[in-house]
Design brief:
Strand order of the largest sheet: 1-2-3-4
Strand content: 25-35%
Number of strands: 4
CATH class: Alpha Beta
Shape: elongated
CATH superfamily: GTP cyclohydrolase I, C-terminal domain/NADPH-dependent 7-cyano-7-deazaguanine reductase, N-terminal domain
Order of helices and strands: EEHHHEE
CATH topology: GTP Cyclohydrolase I, domain 2
Structural class: alpha+beta
Largest sheet: 4 strands, antiparallel
Number of helices: 3
Radius of gyration: 16 Å
CATH architecture: 2-Layer Sandwich
């Protein structure tokens, strides 16, 4: 596997409706999101111009809005939605999405899930 540069978006906090239990559907719950975007920074570095870079401000805004508007039941479904949104940005070759559902478990800080999704044709 070829090594790629990475952009990290860490500790995004978003409130949304998530869960399968009826009481979880009544109020928003806080999620902590970590994204790892696999990219090539060479074009941006060569031109020193945002036009050639992955705009992580735009990625964060789009992912935040997607989560805020979501009412998925499963973390797996929401993570898949987030990955698809990230991979839709030009220059993103793949993404790792980590979601923590805070305050869910009785004896743990959070339940968490991490997935990896690549643009098939671009990942080598």
């Amino acid at each position: 596997m070829m090594e790629h540069d990475r952009i990290f978006i860490r500790d995004m906090l978003v409130d949304c409706v998530i869960g399968t239990n009826p009481e979880e559907r009544l109020t928003k719950r806080q999620l902590r999101i970590n994204l790892e975007l696999f990219v090539s920074t060479e074009p941006a570095a060569a031109h020193d111009n945002l036009r050639y870079a992955v705009d992580y401000f735009a990625v964060e805004k789009a992912v935040y809005q997607l989560i805020s508007d979501s009412s998925r039941q499963l973390l797996e479904a929401l993570a898949s939605d987030i990955a698809a949104k990230c991979n839709s940005f030009p220059g993103v070759l793949a993404v790792s999405v980590e979601i923590e559902k805070c305050g869910t478990l009785a004896h743990s800080r959070a339940a968490a899930l991490r997935i990896f999704r690549a643009k098939e044709a671009l990942w080598v």
